[in-house]
Amino acid sequence: MTEIVDTSKSTREAPATTRAVTVQAQAGIEKQRAEARQQVDQTLDRDAISAIEETQRVIDAINANTISEALSSLERASGKINVLLARNPATALIPINNEVVVFDTAPEDLDSIAEIADAADAAMVLEDYPAARALLYGLMSELRVRTYNLPLASYPDVLKQAARLLDEKKKEEARLVLMTALGTLVVIDQVTPLPLLLMREAINEAQVRRDKDKASAQVFLETARYELDRAMSLGYAAQDPEYKALKDEISTIQKQLKKGEDTSSLFTKLRERMSAFLKRQAEGKQSRQAASQSGQSDQKKRAA
Fold first, then answer.
1. Predicted confidence (pLDDT) per residue in 39-70, tens digit
2. Residue range of the domain that includes 237
3. Full-model pTM
4. Distance of alpha carbon 74 from alpha carbon 59, whole angstroms
């Protein structure tokens, strides 16, 4: 961590306005969460959701020993999948549900972040992975959009296999095949670091104050620099050269403000660069995994 963060006391303490910016940023973060949910909701596919619902009805019918009803639901699920295949021949994953959650467990000051990171490093060296995971959980400060996707390439074969097993009177085997399929949704997480959102709010506030209260604008710009350091310290693409470029632009604005010169074009350039960086962070910070069976059970309830 010390290779990334300046260890001088003055830069490791949060500026006085950090809490004020944090309060002001909550509305912005909530707005972004709502916008993220709206955007992801628009990608959800009703036919894919129906295929999942029909698959669950097949399992329920098998449990109730109503095989004719199970076959009917299986036929409807296959029909939905065929529609999806025809409509999305080159798409491997079809979104069926989402969650938008804010995780903010990280300390505000950089020294505490460094201490937790060092402890996590030590736990990894000792191969105490549960302790390392618990410590790393304390270094999260992010807006996470989680999307559950139906794997279009494999799902049709699962339905065909279940139909064949039911025809062969192997209802238990068919049920297990379908239960497994419901546990293999692909989860994709898209992450936006909260410190970068706080940085954006601080820059916006500095721009508002630059003409009437230059001293206050300077402090908000320092807050923006500090939040950049926090994002780096928390490991959000810490080696990305854009961090330095953003801090250099903030320093340039601070110098121009001190001289009393016009900063309009500089603020515009900084905000454009910041928006592009935020977008790239969100698009690049993704992870994929298969949904667990218990998690999928919750998803089926929400998709219904």
1. 878 888 899 999 999 999 999 999 999 999 99
2. 9-36+193-284
3. 0.73
4. 9
